[in-house]
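Thread title: Can someone regenerate the structure for this chain?

I was given the following input by a collaborator and told the matching structure tokens would be attached. They weren't. Posting the sequence so someone can regenerate them.
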Amino acid sequence: MGLSVRLPRAGGNLSTYSLSTAEPIALATSQDGVSPFRSRIAYSAAHVVCDPLADSDPLNQAQIDWDATLAYRRHLWSLGLSVAEAMDTAQRGMGLNWARSQELIQRSLAEAKAVGGNIACGAGTDHLTPGPGVTLADVEAAYEEQCSFVEGHGGRIILMASRALAACAAGPDDYERVYGKILDQVSQPVILHWLGDMFDPALAGYWGERDADAAMDVALRVIHANADKVDGIKISLLDDEKEIRMRRLLPASVKMYTGDDFNYPALIRGDEQGYSHALLGIFDAIAPVAAAAIRALDAGDLARYDALMAPTVALSRHIFQAPTYAYKTGIVFLAYLNGHQKHFRMIGGAEGARSIVHLSELFVMADQAGLLQHPEMAVQRMKRVLAVAGIEE
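Best answer:
Regenerated them for you:
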């Protein structure tokens, strides 16, 4: 007899869901002699696992379970994925502050060196609180501090968008000044990070323009003026047409890293004029499928790539539905269902950011995408979450 669970649906009704009898996606890991990806660079932004037993304020002084957090990074590396560390998926600026980020970066860089994993780390200005007294010089100093920390520990920089810069910049010229100064100082090319305001409302009007096309022109000016210091740019605007337009306007040496969690399969697959690499939060949740799909691209098997990626799109759009910044809850929920952590708790209490109906629908989509690696465990853990919501078998 198959596995089943009673799940709440929209409207308050309960219905029985029977899990798929198909085998989950097999994990091809480095322990099996897996080689690095050849056709694409694929970064997974990685979540952190909180310590639920820490006797501290979960909103302001959340503690991290380092063993589970680093084990998850080893899992990503074992699949062939790279890790984008201390990004918004790790609740950077939404529960994870700069002090805790420094420890996370330092530990992850050491772990990457020990296992041969590829990693890049977020450097921003989140220790600088935006306010009327903050100047461009303050923003530059904050960027310099964080970039120096990452490079000082042997890391590659992902230059994150700055809330403080968004608040104090008078227009595009200020962005060109700040980015030009910081890029002039870095020792190796960085990945720029353009995060849309659907991910962080405080970044509205980034690059000094409210219109996305005009903002893109500013970003392109920065890149062309500093092309030798820019490895690539990740854009998270959830607009595939804008990403493709920008991709075609980049210098030949600069990569596009898609951050589009709605349209990533087609953007990574590419067209006759090029393709995007990946730096995605959704790859944390769909890591086994994403890795298998990139390997299909490596082999030139576009049909298998499409077949693997297609079922993940509905799941990703569900996880990243408005309010988009709450997507981290779904990422951690899937990690819990798959046994990568012993609990469904998050720093800042963010496990409560999505409804039980949302999580139930996510459970179904994950099963249909072949992402429940241990179905019996997933059902047991789903039932625990349901019980907390007052739904008993």
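The chain is about 45% helix and 10% strand.
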